[in-house]
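If you are new to this repository, start here. Below is one unmodified record pulled from the training split, so you can see the exact layout before writing a loader.
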Amino acid sequence: MFYAGPEAIDGGSRRYIAATMDAPFLERGYEFELARRWRDNDDTKAMHELVFAYARFVVRIAAGFRGYGLPMGDLVQEGNVGLMESAKRFDPARDVRFSTYAHWWIVAAIQEYILRNSSIVRIGTSAAQKKLFFNLHRIRARIADNTTGPMTYDNRHSVADELGVPLAAVERMEAYLSHPDQSLNAAVGPGETGEFQDFLADDAASPEAIAIDRADHRKRAGWIKDALRRLSPRERKIIVSRFLTEAPSTLAELGGVFGVSKERIRQIEAKALEKLRAAISEKTDDPEELFAN
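And here is the target side for that same chain:
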């Protein structure tokens, strides 16, 4: 039986569409019988017959989404994925026609495909965004004075009110839909050799600035190392614990370590910092930057 296989879509969309239009409609009782055979007995032949009988719905629904710039064959194929999924989940005991149940699965599959492939920028990640994405064109054509250029402020407000979304969401979606993806490797104009990426600003530091910064860091680290040698072991321990570790110790913690009050630790720290400033002043005119809290 001929149904929505990849070869049918890729190699002969017209033949496939013609075949779906020629498929006979199913009587209600026979439709439910096929569904029960598939559900209860895993009868794949019955499932294929049920699916193919309603493949015309996929073609009709896919045709309604042709305005999004994607191949009709791909839309039909994705719609068939939704149709197959609905066949797997359909419960004939609920006494609902398969076409009614399958419609929502077909639409969902096609819409998800459009959202995934209309742009490299992911959009429609929430129900409100999806609703806005698929309704903006329709509502704009009905209420906007200009259907080609940007909408007016009042038009955007009308869309936001009708869809129940923030005005900012409408503005973002309008900007998204009006500016299709463009490669950074594309030429800036006809006959131009320059590419768009050539005009992107690079905010990163230059290699020269990075090299200078690393040299300065090594120099300052050397100053501190030499200055620490002028401190007593206790002073050095306090300075390192207070300023040169990822988790600095408090005055009270160091008081416990040395068996003195936190005020005494503060006094020792202040004296040690003065020694360090004096030592580093021999190297630079601005030693304070090394001790800023």
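Two things worth knowing about this chain: The radius of gyration is 35 Å. Residues 1-11 have pLDDT under 50 and may be disordered.
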